Amino acid sequence: MSQIDNRARALLPWCPMEKTAPCCTPRTYLEVTDLTVKYKNTTALRHVSIEIPRGCVTAIVGPSGCGKSTLLHVINRMTDAVAGCDVRGSVRLAGAEVLGKGVDLRMLRRRVGLIFQRPNPLPLSIAENVLLPLRDHGFTGREERASILERVLHEVGLWDEVAQRLNAPAATLSGGQQQRLCIARCLALLPEVILFDEPCSALDPIAAEIIEQLICRLRNRYTVVIVTHNLAQARRVADFTAVLWNREGASSLVEFGKTRHIFERPTQGLTSLYVGGVTG
Amino acid sequence: MTEARIHRSTTSKSDVAVQTASWLALVALLVPLGLIVGDLLMRGATSLSPQFLVDSPSKAGREGGIGPVLLSTLLVMGVCLLVVVPLGLAAAIGLNEYLRRGGFAVRTVRIALDVLAGTPSIALGMFGYAFFCIALGMGVSILAGGLTLACMVMPLYVRLSEQALRTVPDDVRAAADALALRRYTAILRIVLPVAAPGLFAATGLALARALAETAALLFTSGYVSRTPGSLLDPGRVLAVHIFDLSMNVPGGDGPAYATALVLVALLLSVSGVPRLVRGFTRRWSHPV
Prior knowledge:
By secondary structure, chain A is an alpha/beta fold.
């Protein structure tokens, strides 16, 4: 970790993660308790409780429309902007309540980054996609920002591809590159948790594989939650897996546990039917 | 199914009918436009000369040019734009970016703008006279005229600007939200650049609407054809000049047509300039 990055980290009120192997002894970092989400008349999620461990990759799987994305968007309060969305229950990040009033949304969204299904670079240059959020969040030193830019682009494996054209529009990148740029943009703000909302479903298989490998590299340093409807992907990348299912008009958690257990020895009949490809 | 059959099926009888109908409609639209411009050219071009654009009118406009009228027009438009663009843009940004959609404030402002948009311009002229000229003591002046016009084109400008702001994709807004960018950073650096072409077009259309206005200006900026010395002097705009020449001045037809030609040229350039600017901005702005 460079000197400059240490200064950047000094801006943080939270403690960044040391590189360890926390999955041996999972410690809950993100605690969702009795979460119920309603959109006007329909209930998207009903009484969902999950304890997401620190430094691990947790996959949320389930058929379409089972509230996977809703669950993800509640965690960094993107649901606030949705009219008529009613969120009840509790989400705790490192023990602190995320829902409710008085939460600093700006700080929360820095700590909890979100990667969308479709790559959505800002309509700016490649470099500005990373630099603008940095400036906006108070990283005042020009050199400091430049070094963060280089570090995060290296981290997502984009540096060698774009170093020569940092000022080109981000829209000129391929879909997979754009998605990696979005991840780099998120990493630049030094998040603790990164939420991926089906990050590969709009990409071709090769680009998807690169993203997948990237997610695996994020393990241990970030707490990763990934929504996917690709069971094979969940099996490849996730340490833990949660299965959501729509029952009687609302979704709820069917089973949560180590990915290996979910896929090899599920305790619920529905889970075994789903991972066995019989239903869903 | 063979390839040939697929091709044949693409031009059915109904397709031909629809195509013919759209061509007819196009012609029907272009004929009146051609007639108007042709008429103006035939009757006005003879009186038109570089001198006509700078000279002062004499003999009630039968002779001389439209220099002071052109100046007054530019000043009135300038006042109008100086008020409409900042206020209208702020309103559009407020309605679209800050206020809760469908909330009380948004609905109230929308209704107010709709009422304003539906007000006949002659009524706005009377309001402008009573409010700006009398109550605020501006007198019949270029300032009062420009402000009245501002009231008139504000709804159009706000509506068009809102449309331009809405061209910013939701994806991009979500990205700005998820990165927790400050609102004004997102607006200044992302929303406005993306919406810029539409905002330029909105300005052009609002200006065109203002240029063509006569009724609201009769009472407020007057029809004195002297060169205005300040914004508090009255001044005659092009449209009022045409109205006066053709209604009140026997033998004023030639200059009236020439003035109309100038007005049409101005209108075309005003609606064309934004397109030009769009061409330029495309070079340095980034595609979404």
